[in-house]
Design brief:
- This protein is of the alpha/beta class.
- Helix content is 37%, strand content 19%.
- α3 packs parallel to α4.
Amino acid sequence: MKLSKIAEILQAEVLYGEELDRIEIERACGSDLMSDVLCQSMQGSLLLTGLTNPQVVRTAEMSENSAICFVRGKRPPAETMDLARKNDIPLLLSTFSMYLACGKLYTAGLLSCDEA
């Protein structure tokens, strides 16, 4: 699924990233525990989280996530935004809860990172 379609489904604001139509997302992982993200995430996936600290971007980079979506309307600080720009990781912001955001994406056909 194109990242632009995901942004539409989640009614998300694009905080950083251009050409969302060129980014293909195959799976999503929703977690506020970065240790879980490191265990579950797959290359080319979307990370949904309510955490906004720079460690989220570092974790996404290590686990090869293609993009991050902050849920619950949580806006990241400048330091997190700067690190995402440096690593060219698109950032989205949705006001939906984690549960609702993940449910909407699953209903739209996006697989979970823990599905084979």
